[in-house]
Amino acid sequence: MSKPTPDANVPIRRVDRILAFISLGLAIVAIGCFFAVILAAPLGVKDFTAGLWPLILVFPLIALPISFILIVVLLIMTFVRRARANRGG
């Protein structure tokens, strides 16, 4: 078994919060764009090549993988920070 942490509450760093909020924000906006595309056809949008529609179509394809990568980076940083706290360093 692993040793308990000296301090039960390991402080959350600013970088962790920034990564979490950026990842969450990207995912929420990407899902919103996804639903906008789904609802556009029944509402009568015929031309997806004009205006903001190309951006709305491509944004989830870029933002969701970036959001996933940021979550993985955040998890790795958290595991490393807790491992260091458990070792006492």
Descriptive labels:
89 residues, mainly alpha, rod-shaped
How would you sum up this structure, described in words?
By secondary structure, the protein is mainly alpha-helical. It has one domain (15-83). Helix content is 70%, strand content 0%. The protein contains two helices and no strands. It is rod-shaped. The chain starts with 13 loop residues before the first helix and ends with a helix. This is Multidrug ABC transporter ATPase. Keywords: Membrane, Transmembrane, Transmembrane helix. The chain crosses the membrane at residues 21-43, 55-80.
Structural class: mainly alpha
Radius of gyration of CA atoms, rounded to a whole number: 20 Å
Poorly predicted ranges: none
Work out the number of β strands. Answer: 0
**Average pLDDT over all residues:** 88
Count of domains:
1
Helix and strand succession?
HH
- What's the helical proportion of residues? 55-70%
